[in-house]
Each structure stands twice: as C-alpha cells, then as structure tokens.
Amino acid sequence: MDRIIEKKRWTPTKIAAYVGVVAVLGLLTYVFAFGDNSSKLNVEAQKITMSTVSQGSFQEFIPVDGTVHPIKTIMIPAVEGGTVDQKYLEGGKPVQQGELILKLTNNRLVLDFMNQETLMNDLINNLQNSKLSLQQNKFNLRRRLATLDAQLDAAKDTYERSKPLYESKAISQQEFYTARREYDRLKAERQIEQESQKFEEANARTQIAQLEATISRTSRNLQMMEDNLKNLYIKAPISGQLSSIQVELGTPVQAGQVIGQIDDLSGFKVKAELDQHYVSRVFAGQRGEFAYNGQTFPLEISLVYSEVLNGKFPVDMKFIGKVPKGIRRGQTLQIRLQLSDPAPAVLLPRGGFYQSTGGAWAYVLDPSGSFATKREIRLGRQNPEYYEVLSGLKPGEQVITSSYDTFNDKDRLELK
Questions:
Q1: Torsion angle defined by CA atoms of residues 151, 154, 157 and 158, in that order, rounded to the nearest 10 degrees
Q2: 288 with 300: CB under 8 angstroms?
Q3: Residue 98: other Cβ atoms inside 10 A
Q4: Could you report how far apart the first and last alpha carbons of the chain are, in Å?
Q5: Tell me: the pLDDT tens digits for 308-342?
C-alpha cells in the first residue's frame, strides 16, 4: 500500500534564498545608515590652484592708474580782443616769465585811447585857465579895493570935516548930508565888493575842484586804456614750457579767449580717476604708493574733486619727499591707494572660487592631501591680493582657490 510522503516546508534551497535576501537587505541598510553618502567628483590635481591660509597684516587698498602732470598749468587768456599781428614763440618751447609770446592789433582801442588823451588835454587846459582866471580875479579885487579904500578915505575925511562945520552952522544941512551919504555909499560898496569877490572865488575854487576830480577820473581811465593797449602784447605769466599756442598770424582773438598754456616744470603731481563707489572713502591726506625703478615711492591725495562724471571722480596726488628721477609728464603710474591702516588678520589669497560661492564656502584640502571637502567660511574685507578670513579657516590650511564652475557643487573632490 502506497504511503503519502509529507512535503518539507523549509528546504535547503529555500533557506539559502531567504538568507541571501536578508543579507542583501542588511547590507543596504548598513550602507544607507552608516556608509558615506556624500557626492564625489574625481579631479586632476594639476588643473586646480591650491592656496595656503596665512596669518599676516591686512590692508585694504585699491589699484589706481595715475598720470603724471606738471605741478601747475597756467592758461594764457587774451585780456583784450584783436588780431594776431606777430607770433614770437611756438608750442613746446621753454619760456621765461615776462617773455613776449604774441602781439595783437586793435584799432578801436588805439582810437579810443587817442580820443581819451585829447579829452584829457582839454580838461587840463580848462583847469589851467580856471586857475589863471582865479588869480586874475584876485588881482582885480585888490585893485578895486585899493581904489575904493582911497575914495572911502577921502569921503570919510570930507564927512568928518563937514560935521563940526554943520554943527557950527558954517555949512548947510544939504552939504553935510551929501558928504555923509557919499561916505556911507562907499562903505557899503566896499562891503558888497568883498562879498562878491568871496562868492566868485568860492565858485571858481568849486569849479577847479570839479575839474581836478574829472581830470583824476579821466587820468585813471586813460591809464586803464593804456594798460589795455599793453595787454595787446601777451607775455608769459610764469617761467616754464609753452606747451601749446592755439592761434596763427591773422587769427581774430576774442577777449577772454585762451590762446595757450604754460606748464610749470619745477615739480609734478599725479592725477587719477576713481570709481564713484569710493567717493565717501577718499579724502585729502590719504596715502598711496607706486613702484618705480625697483623702489616704492609714497604719494598723498592733495585735492578731491566733488564732481562725478561717467561714474568717476578725479583726485590730485602729490609726491611725498623727492620726485623720483626720470619721471616724465604724461607717464602712467600704477598706484596702490590705501583705504585702511594695516591690521593683523587671517589671509586667504584671492581666486576664481569667490564667483561661485560668494565667499560663503570653499573646498579645504584634507591633511592627507588626497581629497578636499566643502566647508562653510566667512570672509570680510578684500584687496586685490587677499580676502580677510573672519571664520572657518585656520593658518596653514590649504584651500582650492581656482574656479569651481566644473565641480557641480559636489561635497567632496577626490584628487588624482
């Protein structure tokens, strides 16, 4: 009789399969729970730039291109207008103070001067005539007074002699009154003559004073016109180099027109243009420096111009101490303009990584040198050479400072 064989539930094959599944699940669990899940990228070490964090002195500065200019440039204006009659010097020539540069002609000024001179002569003649008339009046007064005094003495004598005769009835009353009236008339006439002469003399003196004041004003006007004629001869206001002369023979020149300029070559200054971003951080007395012939020379801002044009504002800088030998007008200098005083700080060299991270993080090299990991950092001020490290990095550590554009924001870089 056949016997029913009972089928076994756990066969060796099935047990082996279950064990395999559990092992795989355990492995996966371990990998996800305890394994390294960070994203990685293999990078060739020769294609990246490594920089070492250091401890040093940080100073904020900006690079500036400056141009050497003469210490002073004097514009030469034409004080009076005219036509260029003679030209004595050309641009580029050295010139001494007071040396003649141009001669202008202006017929109107010459004619005005001649008319004013004629008026002056007429006024002088009138003044002399008035003074002569006053003197003649004085002589006539003395002559008339002398005649009146003689007549008055005679009338007084007649009157005084007739008075006792009239009292003694020797002469008539009419004769006495006639002598007294003549004496009184002459006294009054003398008084009137004196007052009249005083008035005429005062009036003459007033006229003379007015003429003298007019002559004084006319003389000043004449002197001004003479100076204007002298201004037709344009001379060098200072010694230096006549860098340009902008007119030719026969050229009409307007009053106030600039006809050239003279550069004072006794010294130099440096002119530079700065970005308007720094307008609140730049001031007179601020220092800078530049390298020349293997030496470093200091500069100092002497003038800051307030106007901003095309996003820039100009400054003038002066040399501190002696001007370097060989400096020439128009030469360009590479200047480091200081924006802060030196201070101790942790320094990280500048690099292209900043454009990718904004200074918020960087790849820091492991001490083994085989890989670099992403680390959060904080940077402060910067200059063209260094960033100021505020946190996240220590002196001696190495950081990848080249561009991160090809790293795809991986957490770890394996260096090959």
A1: -100
A2: yes
A3: 10
A4: 77
A5: 889 999 999 999 988 888 888 889 999 999 888 88
